[in-house]
Amino acid sequence: MIVVDTSVPWRDGRHRAARDWYESFTEELATTPLVLAEIDHLVAARAGSAGLPAFRADAAGGAYSIEWWRAATAQSVEVAGRYGGPGL
Predict the structure, then answer these.
(1) Which residue has the higher pLDDT, 29 or 4?
(2) Is 31 contained in some domain?
């Protein structure tokens, strides 16, 4: 298993290489609640009100494999929704 950090989804000088690798990779990928929180913050900062609900819906729906504890994603999204601001 490979743990993914925030460098995969964001565009930088190596984004294309990361994207190409990701698209061809067939093993299981996972991330941590901390990375999920960082991505939530970056989505809020860069995509704002258009991107944040979509990201949180994906997270709540199980689109990301979180390995620290099973309920971490749903709990993080629930808390973020309860307090309304950006950042899981």
Answers:
(1) 29
(2) yes
